[in-house]
Amino acid sequence: MRLDKFLKVSRLIKRRTVAKDVSDQGRVWINEREAKASSTVKVGDQLKVRFGQKSITVLVERIVETTKKDEAALMYTVLLEESHKTE
């Protein structure tokens, strides 16, 4: 599944266009490699997404084309959440 679609379906990011923009800005990594919106996400991959002041690292548990809001969190496991200070 494309990275931008996974971020949207899993609800890590609410809109696919925003997911595409974040990916293309170099703020998403798959298995510690910078990823673009068209990169492929597979079960077992580690994703790191940087949002302004924080970043989140998740492990991809499953891939589904569509999901309900309460089931979206089952697509990944949060491994690490970090806050970043700007100086």
UniProtKB/TrEMBL annotation:
It comes from Paenibacillus psychroresistens. The gene is rqcP. Associates with stalled 50S ribosomal subunits. Binds to RqcH, 23S rRNA and the P-site tRNA. Does not require RqcH for association with 50S subunits. Keywords: Protein biosynthesis, RNA-binding, rRNA-binding, tRNA-binding. InterPro entries: RqcP, S4_RNA-bd, S4_RNA-bd_sf. SUPFAM superfamilies: Alpha-L RNA-binding motif (SSF55174). The keyword Protein biosynthesis applies. GO terms for molecular function: ribosomal large subunit binding; rRNA binding; tRNA binding. This is RQC P-site tRNA stabilizing factor.
